[in-house]
Amino acid sequence: MAVGSRNLLRTCPLCEAVCGLTLTLDADDQVVSVRGDRDDPFSRGFLCPKGASFGKLDGDPDLVRPPLVRDRATGEFSPVSWDDAFDLIAERFPAALGADGNRAAGLYLGNPNAHTVAGALYLPALIRAVGTRHIYSASTADQMPKQVAAGLMFGDPLFVPVPDLDRTDHLLILGANPLESNGSLCTAPDFPGRLKALKARGGRLVVVDPRRTRTAELADEHLFIRPGTDPALLLGIAHTLFAEDLVSVTVDVTGLEEVRAAAADFTPEVAAERTGIDADTVRRLARELAAAPTAAVYARIGTCTAEFGTLTQWLVDVLNTLTGNLDSPGGAMFAQAAAGGVARSKPFRTGRWRSRVRDLPEAMGELPVATLADEIETPGEGQIRALITVAGNPVLSAPSGDRLDTALAGLEFMVSVDRYVNETTRHADVILPPPRSVQSPHYDFALLQFAVRNYARYSPPLVPLGDRPSESAVLVRLAAAVTGQPHAGTGAQSAIAQVDEFVIATTLAKAGRAESRGELTGADSTEQRIDLMLRLGPYGEWNGGKLNLSVLLDNPHGLDLGALRPRLPDGLRTASGRVELAPPQLIADVARLRARLTEPVPAMTLIGRRQLRSNNSWMHNIAGLVGGSNRCTLHVHPDDAARLGLGEAATVRSAAGALRVPVETTAAIMPGVVSLPHGWGHGGSAQSVARANAGVNANALTDDSVIDPVSGNAVFNGVPVTVEPA
Ligand SMILES: Nc1nc2c(c(=O)[nH]1)N[C@H]1C(S)=C(S)[C@@H](COP(=O)(O)OP(=O)(O)OC[C@H]3O[C@@H](n4cnc5c(=O)[nH]c(N)nc54)[C@H](O)[C@@H]3O)O[C@H]1N2
Ligand SMILES: Nc1nc2c(c(=O)[nH]1)N[C@H]1C(S)=C(S)[C@@H](COP(=O)(O)OP(=O)(O)OC[C@H]3O[C@@H](n4cnc5c(=O)[nH]c(N)nc54)[C@H](O)[C@@H]3O)O[C@H]1N2
Ligand code: SF4
Ligand SMILES: [Mo]
């Protein structure tokens, strides 16, 4: 090793797999090599191409370094000091709200907030300070249906079962491609290796997807399904389980008869007609699930971002329950994370308030991102005039992205906390950059709630901040600035300490441990909060266990806390104290599906796809990641291409817009379906590599007027389109 260089450990923050990394930093603190941490008990050395590019991302010359302020006349950004940036926000943000005050403020929170300590611990302070019901996030373009379904069935939207990957005998996957995505709402480093191990121990893997993906290639069986029709398949399976007396519920439930009645007219023949999967196969899928010693059904983004997203997610756990696999080893189980669980007192419900323009229900304190453009564009009391985005790019990630692009340009004031000038943040008046990942602490409060093994790992900051504020400090100072408090006098770290002291004091008081403040350890108040959460958590020193922050610091490769264990009924927060198998909203939604069955199937529909060397919209500026298979092309079945006379490029049209895209024919896609990846469309980007590999914005075709009404989730799959030669 070169003089001054050293190896350091940390968790990869780039996807949900939480792999351990071994980084080599040189004497100038630059990341010169990245390896998988072989001593991490969970990831055991696994590393994917994105993780391997961690150093390139960290050193990208296009990253925003000092804060930037945009001149509204020229559109040009120029660097400013942190103090000037916050002064400007304190002056302009409250002024932009006008007489409506906080009701005219909006907040959009993007995906990486699920991966940062700042997002987990300090966004609540910002949300409180902004004081608005205009809270939007990537969740309603992603997993909200699963959370609403879990909330309705189990009483807690964070109590989401995951397939017990390492022990199951039979796994049915719908609408997920973990060989490329590395898994989602199922935290499993080396997901591909875990699936191979399932097969090696004689287990069976079945994949239902309109594309023959790499995961489908690995499977024992792959079935094409017509996009958006998964709930008909799952109801057909449920119908068969009842009809053939294969139901064996092993947990305490309510609503079994209502489920039987809801599935009564969804015969395998009805399911076949809609899905394109023949009736005998539907019956066989049911029998296989019932017969396997242990089995789990797992469905992800392909089935969430669909018109019946919540219905589908509910049916997944209905099947897990009907087959006796809920909360049972090898089935669908609940993780028990060491920290970050939220103690709910009341059962979950949605619609505690509704959106102004379209009257859509709130879910988990958020309104659907599919109505963000409406709320910015529609005049009236409570119209959004000032917006904050943190770690997001909704112009490329939200439906009707082009419309949102125009809407953002009409805001009075906008602030973005982001690493890059991207398609969204280019509209910001001020961009506040987070420091490098290696300068931030890391603990996966969110993702470890969904892990396939109980595990905890803490990575302290590896490189000092120097003159940069931590992302946590940025959020806390922003919280002060939006309420018009000038930054002066509130030193960033002391502002954080104030927030932390308040949280620590109230938490200790609630736990009846007010006298224990002095026992908390950690280099700063953030670490002391983490220590507090670990001590009070299910493995914690103050809860009959041993865990605290110093235990994690002594185990820098991470700590294995064992295989998943049954958690029912204690984890339930339903009014009945049982698993509520037939929530009225979902039974009612079966009727909506039934009505849909009488409507014709669109001749051609659009779906998305993820790419191994991509991550939504923000890894296209790394030369080693773009190009080759990672290009923005339209996948079309050769028969469709021939029938439509497609050449090198096609024009795809939907109700929302039209795009010209390069065509790639492949028999891996179902006839009648085309696929376009999202996150592209960097034509005007300030990022040089991304601009040279621009692609088009798939969300110019998706339609923000179409949502899953139960959760408010956006619809990206099964979008009706026409395709013609360009
Ligand atoms: N058509 C279609 N659209 C989709 C999807 C789809 O499958 N099809 N998928 C949806 C899904 S699942 C998701 S999660 C959303 C994602 O939607 P978004 O979260 O809105 O988009 P990302 O592209 O993930 O943008 C993340 C931003 O965070 C910044 N960033 C990265 N790390 C940090 C950090 O540490 N701090 C801060 N402050 N910023 C950081 C990046 O520079 C980037 O600008 O897209 C959704 N959109
Ligand atoms: N490499 C890489 N990894 C990522 C990301 C990335 O962009 N790139 N993004 C991260 C994020 S934010 C998330 S949320 C996760 C998502 O993780 P996954 O859910 O595994 O996401 P995808 O790989 O998009 O797989 C979704 C699959 O659904 C299929 N599909 C589309 N429509 C339908 C349908 O109607 N029915 C069925 N049954 N299938 C359908 C698609 O063909 C696709 O293969 O991945 C994360 N990991
Ligand atoms: S799979 Fe995810 S967590 Fe693991 S190295 Fe790749 S990006 Fe990082
Ligand atoms: Mo996501």
Automatic annotation (TrEMBL):
Domain 4Fe-4S Mo/W bis-MGD-type residues, every copy: 5-62
Keyword 4Fe-4S listed: yes
Regions crossing the membrane: none
InterPro entries, per database record: Asp_de-COase-like_dom_sf, MoPterin_dinucl-bd_dom, Mopterin_OxRdtase, Mopterin_OxRdtase_4Fe-4S_dom, Prok_molybdopt-oxidoreductase
PROSITE patterns per record: 4FE4S_MOW_BIS_MGD
Pfam families: Molybdop_Fe4S4, Molybdopterin, Molydop_binding
Keyword entries, A-Z: 4Fe-4S, Iron, Iron-sulfur, Metal-binding, Oxidoreductase
Name of the featured protein: Molybdopterin-dependent oxidoreductase
Source organism of the structure: Nocardia thailandica
UniProt lineage: Bacteria, Bacillati, Actinomycetota, Actinomycetes, Mycobacteriales
